[in-house]
Structures are given as structure tokens and as C-alpha cells.
Amino acid sequence: MSFTRNAIDFHMHSTFSDGSMPPEELVKLADQAGLAACALTDHDTLDGVPGFLAAGKNYPDLELFSGVEISTRYGYREIHIVGLGVDIKSAVLNRFLSQMRQERWKRAELMADKLAGLGYPLPESWKALEVVGRMHFAELLKENYSFTSINEVFEKLLRRGTAGYVPRILPPPVEVISAIHAAGGVAIWAHPLYSQMRERSWGKKVLRHLVPMGIDGMEGHYSGFTEEQMIMVKGLAADYQLFLSGGSDFHGAGHEGVAIGTGYGDLHVPIELLGVIKEKIKFYQEHRTDEN
Question: Is 271 a domain residue?
Fold first, then answer.
């Protein structure tokens, strides 16, 4: 099949975090979608990237990038930052991600204890997961108890304010941005303004802190964005001289209706964004502070 290959997808998850498909399958789907480039951005781990990049050898028309998504704490909110083009052997970044996974594990143990006390003990299988999060618990609870949907599990037990919820201990954005830059990658504010009230003023408030910390770009194209939100993010990026990126936030099962490259059907992250992103990655690779 012939493709124009005029789109990219720089936000995808695999079985190495909370996605349902292995990295190699993501590469296959990205090629079938006719993408020019894509990145694997699992939560708090780079372990899926070697297989992801190796699979790309079978798809010469598809350019692959290493990536990772890391959660940070800004006030009472979480801000997610995607590191793109990072060296997966970076000592600084890998130490940082190891600490993040340890905190995830501590939280998971506390949450599992809470759920057991509420009458919902989890099967021991969750302890074999490399990176564990609420989505994994939600899936197990749906499979083992009388919940009709993942959303029902979250509403009753796992969202903030419910009896089974345990907050995460998260680093400030500056630590995440610094670790990404040390590894030769660019730092991108993922799905900014998502589900926020007074979005533009809130976005400006956050950017007044993130820009001095070294944030490089924003996801201006995202599966969950309305047209108005996309225009708003593009305007904020221009105001603060940040480049634009974007992606589907593909997870497979558990995020129904979201496809690689096209999100809910109308997502298009233009290939014209790729040149600036690659130039910025090259800059950080040439000015690295961490050697593997």
C-alpha cells in the first residue's frame, strides 16, 4: 500500500507500562497507519525502547524515536512531561526512572492493602508487573469482581477522593526536565490544559514556571483536544517560543476508540513539526551533561 506519510505520532504506550500491545506491534500498526515517524513513550521506563527500535529495521519508511512519559507534581495537579530522543543508556535518566518506579511500587502496595481492607483483594499477578499503576488495578478489579466497566472501578475505588485511592509522591517538573536534557532529549509538556477550568489562564500560569525550567515544547495535537483547545495550545506555544508536538496517547485496550496516528479519528500531527523537533534533539545531544 502506498502512503503519503505526512503525519507523526509521538505519544504511544506499550505492555512495558500500561499499554496492551508489545512495542513491536506498535511499530507495525504505525507503519500500517502510514506514519512518517513515531515514538514509544511508556510511563517511567525505557525498557521497551530497544525492541521498539529493533522492530523499525523492518519498516525503512518509518522513523522511530526513543521516548518516556514522566509524571510531575505542580501544586495539587499532575503535569506529565514526555522526554523525546533520549539516550536509553543515560545513567542520569535511568537512575531517575528507577526511583520513579520504586515510588510507584510503594504506592501500589499501599493501594493493594487498602483494596483488600475494602473487600477487594487483588490476585498476586500484579506483583509481576514492571511498571504498575491504577489502570492495571482497575483491569484486575473488573476481571475479578462485579464491575461493568473500568470507569466504574475508578469512580468507586480508584479516583482521587475514593476509599481505595493513594496519592503518588511525584518530583517537581524541574527535576524531570533536567534528567531528560542530561540524556540528550527534549522535554515536552504532554496533553496540556487537559480537563482544566479556565484553561488559558491556567496554562499561562504553569508556563511561567516551566519555561525558566527549560521546557522545550507542548503537545498541540492530542486525541482528547477539541478544536478550541488545539488553537489555544498553539497560541500559548507561540507566545512562549515553544515548539509543537503531538500524539494519540495510544494504549490499546482500556482506551477504546483511540488509534495510532488518528486518535479518535480526526487527529493529524503534521510532519512539518518533525524538523524543529529533530534540530532541538540534536542540540541537546551535542551539549549533553551525562555520558553513558
Answer: yes
Which CATH number do you get for residue 22? 3.20.20.140
* 61 touches 35 (CB < 8 A): no
pLDDT at 75: 87
Closest to 245 measured CA to CA, from 106, 70, 85? 85
The answer to whether the pTM exceeds 0.90 is yes
DSSP 178-227: HHHHHTT-EEEE-STTTT-SSHHHHHHHHHHHHHHHT--EEEEEETT--H
Q: Is residue 231 part of a domain?
A: yes
Residue 13, domain member (yes or no): yes
**Side-chain half-sphere exposure of 231, counting CA atoms within 13 A:** 3
Residue 161 in any domain: the answer is no
Domain of residue 263, residue span: 7-96+175-286
If one counts the domains in the chain, the total is: 1
Angle at 14 between CA 10 and CA 18, to 5 degrees: 110
b/e map 209-242, b = 16+ CB within 10 Å: ebeeeebbbbbbbbbebeeebbebbeebbeeeeb
pLDDT tens digits, residue range 39-57? 999 999 999 999 999 999 9
